[in-house]
Structures
1.
Amino acid sequence: MTKIAFIFPGQGSQVVGMGQEFIENAAESKAFYERANQSLGFELSKLMLEGPAEELTLTYHAQPALLTTGVMVAEKLLAAGIKPNYAAGHSLGEYGALVIAGVLSFEDAVSVVHKRGLYMNEAVPAGQGAMAAILGLELEALHEVTEKVSAAGDPVQVANVNCPGQIVISGTKEGVEKASLAAKEAGAKRAIPLVVSGPFHSELMRPSSEKLGATLADISLSAPQIPVIGNVMAKELEDVSAIQHELVEQVYSAVQWEASVREMIARGVDVFIECGPGKVLSGLVKKIDRSVATYCVYDEASLEAVLEAAKEWTINA
C-alpha cells in the first residue's frame, strides 16, 4: 500500500511568480490568492506575482505567500484524488500541513502567519540577524562551535537539522559570521549564508513566541484529521493542546526535519510530495533516504507528473 506525505516548504523557497501558471488556468486556484488578499487587507498576490523580490522576501510577506501557494497546490492534488496519509512542513510550512489536516482554516492560517512574521521582525529587525547552512560537519561538533561563539558574546545556535551533512545555524549577524568561520576551521566543507530576513529558530525569537501564543489563543483549532508530524520533537501532534504548544515553541527551537522525515518513513511513507515553489524539501528527503519517491508540484507539468505516477500507486481510497 502506497503511503503519501504532503510536505510544505518554509522561508527561502519564495520566488516572484510563484503559482502563476495555476492561477492563470484555474479559477479555484486564483481564488486562494484572492482569499489571502481579503484576509490580510492588502494585495499579497501582487507581491507574489510581480515582486519586487526584496519585498516578497520580508518574513511577514514570505510566510503568508508560501502558505497560500502551498495550500493551493495541496488542494489541487486533493481534487485530483491524491490524498495524504501524513503531512508535515518545514518551519512556516507546518501551518500548511495543519490547514490540510483540518486543524485551522486557510483564512486564519494566512492571518496568523502574517502576524507571526511581524512579531519575528519586531523581535529582530531585518538585517540584524542571519542564518547559514553548514555543510559537512557533525551536529555535536557544530554545537561546540555555536556554544563557544555565543559564550564570547555573539549569540548563535543550531536552527535546522535538515539532513545528513546539512545543518543550519541562526543568530546575530556577527554570531553567524564567526560561527561559520569557526565551523570551517573545525572541518565543515562549506558555510552558505541564507537569504532570509531574520535569525529564525533561535533564542532571539523568543519574544515573538509570546505574542504568537496570545494570537493562537484567539484562533479556533480542531484535532487533526490526518497525522501531522511536528518540527520540534519530530512526533505526531495528536491534539489541539500539543499543536498550540508546538507552534509557540517552534519559533525559537530547532527544526528537526531529518528526524521528522525518518519518523514518516518509519510509519511506512514511501511517497513525498512537496507542495509549493522550489524543490528544497524533496532534495533533503532524498539525502535522508534515497529509496523513497519524491515529487515537487509547482506548475502544471509537475502536477501532471504526479498524476501520471499515481497511476502505479496502490492507494487506499
2.
Amino acid sequence: MTSFTIEAQEIRIFTVKDFDLKDSVQTCLVNTKYGKEEYEFLKDGRLSKSVTRHSDADYNITYYKYDGKFLKEKRFENYRENNFDPSTSIANIYTIDSTATLKITEKILTYSKEFLEQYEYMYSKENVLEKITRTNDTGIDITTISNTSFKGENTKTYNLNGEIIKSIRTSKIKNKNTPEQKLVLTKTFLNGEAISAEEDKINQKDKIVSKTKFLFNTDKKEFEPQEVILYDYNENDMLIKTEEKLEDSVTIKEYLYQYDDGNSGNWIKQIITPDNSYKTRAITYFE
C-alpha cells in the first residue's frame, strides 16, 4: 500500500475569508518568489478549485464539489513534468446521511483505486461533532469529542481510543481599559500527559492579537512560556506588524499593502520588511 500521512480532523470548508479576501471574489492568482497559487470560488464564497504551481510543468490541483451546504468531493491531482500521476493523486468522497442524527462518511482513495482510509463523523442532534471513527489496514481508531461549560468557559476535549490528545478552552477577558477579548487555550497531550500549549487572544473582529507558546516543565509540573507573538492591525483590519519574542531576541516584521480600490478593497501587493519579501495578487470578481 502507498504510504500517506492523513490525520483525523474535522471536515473543513474553505471560503474567501480563509485567504484574506472579501467581497464577491471569483478568482485569485498569487505570485511569490517561491511559485504561484491559484484559487477559484463559487458565488457564495466557497472554494471550488486551488492550484499550487512549483513550475510550469510541476503543479497540484485540488477540486472541491458540494451537495448543498455539505462537501461532496475533494480531489487532489498531482502533475509532474506535465504528466498526471494517479498513484499519488487522492480522492476524498463524502456520503451524507441525515435520516436520524447527521453522519458523514469519508472514503479516501488513490486515483488508481487503492483504498487508503475511511472516516465516519457522527454528530449530535444539535449538529455538533461528537465522534470520528478512522478505519484503515492497521485497524480502527476512535476519536471522541466532548463539550463542557463551566462559569463562562467552554472546553472541547479530544480523546483518541480513550486517551486525551487535545483540549481547547474558550473564555472571555474583560478589562476596564480594553474591549472584551476571547481567550483560546489549546493544550496538546502525549500518552495522556500534557506536553505543549498555545494561548491566543482574539479581538472583537475575530483577529488574533497575541499568541503565547508554552512547553510543559515535567519537573515543575507547569507550563512555561517559550515564545510570544504580538499582532497589530490597521483600520482595514489588515495585519501591519508582528513582534516575536523568543528568549532574549525580538523580531519585528512590518507589512505594507497596495489595494485594488484605493485604500480599501482587497490587497494586490504585500511587502514584508525588513527582508523585503513580497506577494502580488491578481483578483477578478463576479459581476
3.
Amino acid sequence: MRLLKEPLFHFFLIGAAIFIWFHIVSPDNVTVEDLGTITLSENDVALLAVQFETRWKRPPSDAELQALVNASIREEVLVREARKLGLDRGDSVIRSRLSQKMDFLTEAIATSVVPEDEDLDGFLQQNPERYATPNRVAFTQVFLGEKPSEVETEAALAALRAGQEVSDLKGSSLLPVSMPLTTTRVIDSVFGIGFSEGLATLEEGQWMGPVLSGYGVHLVQVLAIEPSRIPPLSEIHSAVLRDWRRTMSEDLAEAQYEILADNYEIITPDLSGRAK
C-alpha cells in the first residue's frame, strides 16, 4: 500500500509512540502519595554522570557525583514548591520554553525517519527554484571610458574583430579585463547592477557592444555561458535531505497541533468590529 510508504504516515506512527511514552513517564502522572517523595533512580544518576563526562571529558569523582545529585534534588524541590505557589502560571518565559520543547520533540521525530531517494527526488522536482544553480558567464571586456563617441566605439569594435590585442585598446580602469565563469550576481557586484543583463544579449565568441556598466561603456567578448540548471539528487543529496526534513517537521508539527487542539474546547472573544 502506498500509505505505508508515505513519510508523513511514518512520522505519525513514530510521533504517536513518542508522545504516548512521554505521557506515561510524565511527572504529572505521579499519584498524590508520590508528590511528597523525590526519587533519583540509578538511571538518573547514570545520566548525570554521562552529562558530566560529555562536558568535561572525564568521569566525575565520587564527590562531584554527589554534588550533582544534591543539585538535582535541590532543583526538583524548588521546582515543586514554585509550582505549588503557581509561579509557573502566567510566566511567558516558561510557557515559551515548554512550547519549544514540544517543537523540539517534533523535530526529533523528523530526524528519525530516513526517506527513500524517490521521496527526496520528488521533493527536488517540486522545489526546483531552491536548488537551481545561477547563470554563469565568462568574458573579456575593453573599457572605453564614460562617454566615448560613436565613432570611437565603432573603430574599437572593428579593431577587435580584426584581431587587435585587447591590451592595445584597454582604457584606464581597475576593472578586470577578463573573468572566468562567474555568477551574474558577482559580475554585477564588480561592474554594477544590470551589466550581466547586457551580457545575456550578446552572441558567444564575438566581440560586441557597446555594453553599459556602472562605470561607462564596454566592448565585450562572451567566452562561455553556463545556464542555470537543476543538479541531480546525487550532487545535492544532503541539502535536499535537510530541507525535506525541515518541511516534513513543519507539516508534522501542524498536523500534531491540530490533533492536540481537538482535545480542547477553545473559546475566544468575538474580535469583529475591533479594527479601527
4.
Amino acid sequence: MPRTIWSGAISFGLVTVPIHVVSATEDHSIHFHRVHLEDLARVRTRKVCELEDREVSSDEIGKGYQLTKELVVPISDEELRDLPLPTAKAIEIVAFMPQESIDPLRVAEGYYLAPDGQVAGKPYKLLRQALERSSRVAVARYAWSGRERLGLLRVRGEAIVLHAMRWPDEIRDPSELLPPPVELSDEEIDGALALMDTMTRDDLDAPEFRDTYTEAVAELIEAKREHREPPSAPEPAADSGQLVDLMAALKESVSKAKESRGEDTGEHADVHEMPTKRAAKKQPARKSAAKKTARKPRKSA
C-alpha cells in the first residue's frame, strides 16, 4: 500500500467524502549517487549555517521569507497548515465540466483518492458514478505543502483520481515560438492524414511505448560491471541542410509504416532534395525545366 500523502475530505455542495491521498504513479527510473571520481566514495550535501559556519541538523532547519536584504521572516509548517483557508482541510469542488474543455498542458501529476473508512464508501461511490455517467470531470481547489492549487477529479476504473493543475498564469504564451506563415496544399494535408492512419493505435501497450532509455542505462551498468564494451549508439543520419520534398517524404513514411505492419505498400516514392528558391531563379528556363523533369519521383516496378 503506498504511503498516505494527505488526509482530508472531498466536499461538493453539502456532501463530504473522507479520503486519504496516495500517489498514482511509481518512479522506475535508474538513480545515481554523486561520487568522488578518484575513489568512488559518496559525496553528500552538508547543511551549513552561514553565520555559525557549522553543520546543522534537520530539527534546526525551517522556512524563512527574504523580505529585505537584512530581514528574513520565519514561517513554521504549523502556521502554513493553520492558514484560514477552506481548502486547507478539504478538496473543495467548485465546478463540473467536460474533460475535453481543459487544456492538457494544465494537467500535472496524479493521485488516487481512497475512501477513508466505511462511512466514506457510499458518498465516494456516489461521486464516482455521477462523474462517470455525466462524462464530466470536477475542478476543485485544495491546499498542500504551503500553497493552494487547482485540481481535476476524474474516474479511472473504480477509483477517483486527482490531478494537480497549473494556474492560468503558469502557462506560457507560445505565440513568439510559432513558425513564419506557410502555405500547405490539400494533397500535403491528405498525405499527413494517411500517415496518421497507418500510425493509429488503440492503446499504449505496443512495444514502441516501452522505456528504452532506462533499458539502455541498465545495459550500460551491466556492461561496466562485467568489464565489457557497452553497445554502441547508431550513427545519426547525415543532415544535408537542403529542403525535402514534403509529399515524397509523406508517401515514403506511409510506405514504411505499412511495411512495418505487414501491409501491402503499393506505390513506392523516393525522398529527394528540392532546390532552394534562390538557386532555381538563377537557372535558365530550359535547364530549370529539365531539372524539374529529372526530379520527378520514380515508380517502382
